[in-house]
Write a structure and sequence with these properties.
Layout lengths: L3 H10 L4 H12 L5 H8 L3 H13 L19 E9 L4 H12 L4 E6 L6 E7 L2 H12 L5 E8 L10
Antiparallel strand pairs: 1-3, 1-4, 2-3
């Protein structure tokens, strides 16, 4: 006879089953949902649902919970995605760039990507003039940066980031 924890471990190693997928989908929509409501939505008993959530957390599938903020309420009226090309493709150059970017509060996401450029950034600022200051005085002043291309976000009809 297998214990529930062992059975769930086997499921996670071989992929997530339908019930766990449903749990994850509901938690993505509302990370503050009560266990009782979550269990009801996914068709499990509260104790079975709680065990599954705890196992998803323990195994690292669920890495944490976040709050969704309203940018306008925080004075953020400008968002852009920026591709950044480096002049030197060495590990030291990448590490120096990543250290500098980690100190920039305007950069809310930084991804090392493949393709014609090395990095994709998501930058949020109050307005266009504040973005220009970041672009010119911070990003453009980094010695590793060779190319910058900005893509201004005009709207986000679908955004499921938490």
């Amino acid at each position: 006879m297998f214990s529930f924890d062992f059975a769930l471990d086997v499921q996670l190693m071989g992929g997530i089953d339908d019930k766990s997928e449903r749990i994850l989908r509901e938690l993505r929509r509302d990370g503050r949902i009560s266990n009782l409501d979550l269990a009801e939505r996914v068709g499990l008993s509260p104790s079975a649902c709680l065990r599954r959530v705890q196992e998803l957390e323990r195994s690292g599938v669920i890495r944490g919970y976040r709050v969704v903020l309203d940018p306008a309420q925080l004075g953020i009226g400008f968002t852009a995605y920026i591709t950044v090309g480096l002049s030197d493709h060495s590990k030291a150059s990448q590490e120096a760039f990543e250290r500098a970017i980690s100190r920039s509060p305007e950069v809310v996401e930084c991804h090392n990507v493949t393709g014609a450029t090395e990095y994709l950034l998501r930058v949020e600022s109050a307005d266009l003039p504040s973005y220009k200051r970041f672009h010119t005085d911070k990003l453009g002043a980094l010695p590793q940066v060779n190319a910058i291309t900005s893509y201004v976000v005009m709207g986000s009809p679908k955004d499921e980031r938490a």
